[in-house]
């Protein structure tokens, strides 16, 4: 299990959360862990339920946007290896926008 940290935006039913999160891929799951003050929010998504991941750009950095379990999730490039790491896990799901 390898993990990384990056900026993430999660949108659902009119709410939008933006934060810094740990991203892990384990047993065909993507796990996002946000630190919210004294609390921790953990979200788990089955990679098999994701139909596609749209790769785009935002202010010169790559973004990876997907829909899962009623959430729209955008992962923002934060560092040199972020895009390579995400492309490795999303390689069969990626579309260019």
CATH superfamily: Pleckstrin-homology domain (PH domain)/Phosphotyrosine-binding domain (PTB)
Unreliable stretches covering 5 or more consecutive residues: none
Number of helices: 1
CATH level-1 class: Mainly Beta
Using brief descriptors, characterize the structure shown.
97 residues; mainly beta; PH-domain like; 8-stranded mixed beta sheet
List the helices and strands and how they pair.
Elements: E1 2-12, E2 15-26, E3 29-36, E4 39-46, E5 53-58, E6 61-68, E7 71-76, H1 82-90, E8 94-96
Parallel strand pairs: 5-8
Antiparallel strand pairs: 1-2, 1-7, 2-3, 3-4, 5-6, 6-7
Short description:
This protein is 9% helix and 64% strand.
């Amino acid at each position: 299990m390898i993990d990384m940290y990056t900026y993430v935006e999660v949108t659902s039913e009119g709410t939008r959360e933006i934060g810094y999160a740990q991203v892990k891929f384990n047993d065909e799951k993507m796990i996002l862990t946000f630190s919210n003050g004294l609390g921790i929010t953990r979200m788990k998504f089955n990679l098999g339920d994701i139909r596609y991941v749209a790769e785009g750009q935002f202010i010169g950095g790559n973004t990876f946007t997907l829909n899962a379990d009623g959430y729209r999730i955008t992962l923002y490039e934060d560092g040199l290896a972020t895009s390579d790491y995400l492309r490795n896990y999303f390689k069969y799901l990626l579309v260019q926008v």
